[in-house]
Every structure is written in C-alpha cells, then in structure tokens.
C-alpha cells in the first residue's frame, strides 16, 4: 500500500511539472504557443525594442508572470503586450513586476506630442480573468480593454508615481471601449491621467479601487465608432489627490447616449480642481463653446459621493445642454472648494448641485 501511494504521488508530481512550461525569451514563447502545456510561466523576459510580447493563440490556457518583464526602448505607437483570446487566465505571481521604464519616453506630452509612445497592455478577451498584475512606469496608457466580454480584472497595481516628477502624461489606468460585462475591482492606480476612462461599453463595474494622483474616474463618450455607455456602476472607490474626482464628459457635437451611470459610495480626498464634473462640450484640447445634447446623459445617479476640494477649486460643475439630461438622482456632500454659479442644464428633478 505504501509503495502504491508513493508511486501515485510521484506520478502526480510528474504530471504537474509536465503541465507547465517556463519561458525565458521570445523564441521560447513562440515554441510554447505550439505546444499543449496548459500553463505558460513567463520568467524575467526582456522584450527587444519595437517588438510586442504577444499572447495570441492561447485559448484555454493560463499565463503566469514570474520575475521582471522589461522592454527595449524605441519610439513607436504599437503595444508592448498584447493578450487576445478566450478562456484565458492571466496571473501575476508573488514578486513579479512588469516594468515599462516609462521615464525613457516621458516628456510631459503624453500621446499628444513629443516622442511616440507605445501602449502598455492591449487586451481583447472573452470569458477570461486578469488577476494580480504589478505594473510600473508605463510609457503612456496602461490597459486598453477593447472589444472584451465577460472579463474580470482584479488585484491590479498600476504604479506610475515616478511620472509626477519625471514628465509622465496620458498614463491612463484602464481605458474601456466596445466591451461588455467587465469587472475591474480591488485595484490601485497612481498616475497622471484618468484612473478609469470608459469610452463605450455595457454592464461595466468598477468597484473597490483606489485612484491616486491622476485625473479621476471618467465616463468619456464621443468621437469613436461606438458612442454608447450603458449600465456603468462605479462603487466603493477612493479618489485621492486627483485634479478631478468623478466626471461624465460627452463630445461637443457628438452623437450617442449615456444611460444608467450610478456613482455609489465614492470618497474624494484633496481634489485640486473640481469634485464632480458633468459636461456636454468636451474636446481633447479642453471643453469649449456651448454644450450640445447629441449625447444625452440619462439616469445619472450620484449616491454618497463625498469629500473635499482644495479652496481654489470648485465643488461641482454641470454644463450640459438644457433638456438633454433625464432621470438624475443626486445625494452628495462635496465641500471645501468654491460653488459654481454658472451651471447649465441641471434637470428640474434635483436641487441645484452647484449651489453647495
């Protein structure tokens, strides 16, 4: 009996070892794609300049990050990492780091001018999980969540705090486009742009996250091939030392819809410019002209959004086309900044939020 047990344990260990493959360079990754090992362990890879760490064709497999992943320097507009497929499990293992060494690209211009800067991670996933990744110093934008469905992003740490003094810009945490049933939770972002920017999507939850140093949490609709954001829940989050707390911004002269956006239990702390921003005249170069109502903002529910704005800032700004918003419910307490007496388009169903 003892011999049989020992043999069984040994066999099980062999099967476990054989079920994973270690990848130390790009060539080994290409070989691993051709194999059938259900687990690929990425270990201390240095990706050559101008090349992408490409995880495609890996449906049903697990990708584990071990050690440090780094990238050669090149000015280009590609992606440092691409992950596409179905039923993929992405896991960050203890002690790992995906290090973009973004200071090599940072020039205070971001994606608008200066050096060409690559995206950090492009994901196009279905029925998948991304968990536990530690990411540092992205050249510009971090996560592109594009045409994804049924995907969880959890326990992710995006640390771009060095960019505050070294010229980081447009270092968005999570950018969501044309995606459905997305959950982003238990994560941290320290950056120099939006913590979350939802350009379009349906049934998206952003919960139990901490945003520090950037431009706040944004639903930003307009200017894309799909301009629709519906059923977006922002819940139990903290926004610390950002220039904006939360905002919904729609493109000037754009067409589309924003419908069903609850901000529920969001704590704002030490906001520099404006606590809550709702505008219908957004342009990339900054808001201007009178707001247009081609992207109406419906069922905007602000519940228990609270915290302080610095004295030179503004508590609340609303500038939307009169008659375009519908079904707003607001319950908030933002203090410390100046009231804005020039708000436009506030629906008659709620008390003027700008008077506080």
From TrEMBL:
Q: Which InterPro entries match?
A: Glyco_hydro_28, Glycosyl_hydrlase_28, PbH1, Pectin_lyas_fold, Pectin_lyase_fold/virulence
Q: Which GO terms describe its molecular function?
A: polygalacturonase activity
GO BP term, pick one: pectin catabolic process
Gene3D superfamilies assigned to the protein according to its UniProt record, in alphabetical order: Single-stranded right-handed beta-helix, Pectin lyase-like (2.160.20.10)
Question: Where, by residue number, does the polypeptide cross the bilayer?
Answer: none
Protein's UniProt keywords contain Repeat? yes
According to its record, what are the GO cellular component terms?
extracellular region
Sorted keywords for this record are: Cell wall biogenesis/degradation, Disulfide bond, Glycosidase, Hydrolase, Repeat, Signal
Record flagged with keyword Oxidoreductase: no
Q: State the signal peptide span.
A: 1-20
Q: Which reaction does it catalyse?
A: (1,4-alpha-D-galacturonosyl)n+m + H2O = (1,4-alpha-D-galacturonosyl)n + (1,4-alpha-D-galacturonosyl)m
Task: Return the similarity comment.
Answer: Belongs to the glycosyl hydrolase 28 family.
The protein depicted here goes by the name endo-polygalacturonase
**Protein's gene:** PG10
